Amino acid sequence: MSELSVEVVRSKKRKKTAQAYIVEGRLRVLIPAGLAPDAEAGLVADLVRKTTRRVISEGVDLHSRAAKLAKQFGLPTPATIEWSNRQLRRWGSCTVSEGRVRISDRLASMPVWVLDWVILHELAHLVVPHHGALFQQIVSKYQLGERAEGYLIARSEIGA
């Protein structure tokens, strides 16, 4: 996705809420008027980051990726797989009893081999709910797994 131009609209009617959406190829950010410059900059940056993640993630078909990986590695496909904008500490999660997988939308802008490793990791939990030896045996089959883990560790340390 190319960089969107950002239009900041300050409103005296807004007291606490802020909103961002795309209009005519620009990212329009609506914020309360009168915010301190630092608070405004932080709020705008946060909304730009979240909206960009959402737009990028909408272009990724998680269902297809999960089905392809499940077939390739002999794993079950999840009942549901979806992006999550609420996962700030984890890259993915799996509710084994429901077959539900959630992937952090922070992964939307990362290399596809990193996203695939996280999806595979969560699919492996559909077979093995813990991180024991059998689980490690499954995920170690992913050729770029160690590299993907290192990438995610580095991103975690810089606050991705």
In words, what does this structure look like?
- The chain is of the alpha/beta class and 160 residues long.
- It contains five helices and six strands, in the order βββααβββααα.
- The protein is elongated and about 60 Å long.
- The model has no long low-confidence stretch (mean pLDDT 89).
Backbone shape: elongated
Beta strands, count: 6
Average pLDDT confidence is 89
Helix-strand sequence: EEEHHEEEHHH
Q: Report Rg.
A: 19 Å
Strand order of the largest sheet: 1-3-2
How are the secondary structure elements laid out?
Elements: E1 5-11, E2 19-23, E3 26-32, H1 37-58, H2 62-73, E4 80-84, E5 92-95, E6 100-104, H3 112-125, H4 133-139, H5 145-157
Parallel strand pairs: 1-3, 4-6
Antiparallel strand pairs: 2-3, 5-6
Helix pairs in contact: 2-3, 3-5
In short:
With 160 residues, the chain is of the alpha/beta class. The chain is 42% helix and 21% strand. The longest helix has 22 residues, at 37-58.
Question: Features of this protein?
Answer:
alpha/beta; three-stranded mixed β-sheet
